[in-house]
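User: Here's a structure from my thesis project, written as structure tokens. My advisor, Dr. K., wants to see whether a designed sequence matches the one we expressed. Can you design one independently, without my sequence as a hint?
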């Protein structure tokens, strides 16, 4: 895959360990959900290296000092429904007060093209750093459409995070939205004829919610 300045592929041994369990078809729903959250939390720490901080005065047991904090209400989380919901708690562990919006997309089984059916975002989201999250970045169609929807509503600082990415989807998002950092914990081999990632982990939504 071509190298992009806005694409960041994680290469952390702990994430690799967790991904190997995540892929296993014998991994149950509870453990699968916990792993998604844990990996997301690790990715959130890394993706916020450029976070803007504000100075605050803190009184320690010994003296008053100037320290730095992330401004309140400066982060929002937008999962792409439904699988993206599994990543929300992972971001919330780092930013517990982050507001949550939702974008609903479904993939047409014949054309493989995404269709938007729902979008509800927190008030003032255009002023926040927005985490757009979806466990699987396959063709890239849903991610690109969701990014378009956020930008149409005034969002300027967006970070996209996926657990598993295919080269086809990563390239599509990186080229269509060069201003958006794309964080992927693991880059897989590619897509099959049905648009599923290989080796992948199956349908993330079904495995998160036990619907198959």
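Assistant: Designed independently from the structure alone:
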């Amino acid at each position: 895959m071509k190298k992009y300045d806005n694409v960041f592929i994680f290469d952390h041994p702990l994430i690799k360990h967790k991904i190997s369990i995540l892929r296993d078809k014998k991994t149950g729903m509870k453990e699968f959900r916990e792993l998604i959250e844990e990996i997301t939390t690790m990715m959130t720490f890394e993706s916020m290296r450029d976070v803007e901080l504000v100075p605050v005065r803190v009184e320690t047991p010994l003296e008053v000092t100037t320290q730095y904090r992330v401004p309140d209400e400066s982060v929002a989380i937008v999962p792409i429904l439904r699988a993206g919901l599994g990543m929300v708690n992972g971001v919330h562990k780092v930013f517990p007060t982050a507001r949550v919006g939702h974008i609903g997309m479904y993939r047409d089984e014949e054309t493989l093209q995404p269709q938007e059916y729902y979008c509800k975002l927190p008030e003032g989201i255009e002023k926040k750093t927005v985490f757009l999250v979806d466990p699987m970045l396959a063709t890239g169609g849903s991610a690109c459409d969701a990014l378009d929807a956020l930008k149409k509503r005034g969002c300027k600082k967006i970070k996209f995070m996926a657990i598993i990415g295919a080269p086809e989807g990563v390239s599509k998002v990186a080229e269509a939205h060069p201003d958006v950092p794309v964080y992927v914990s693991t880059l897989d081999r590619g897509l099959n004829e049905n648009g599923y990632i290989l080796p992948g982990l199956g349908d993330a939504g079904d495995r998160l919610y036990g619907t198959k």
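When you compare it with your expressed construct, this may help: Residues 22 and 32 are 6 Å apart (CA to CA).
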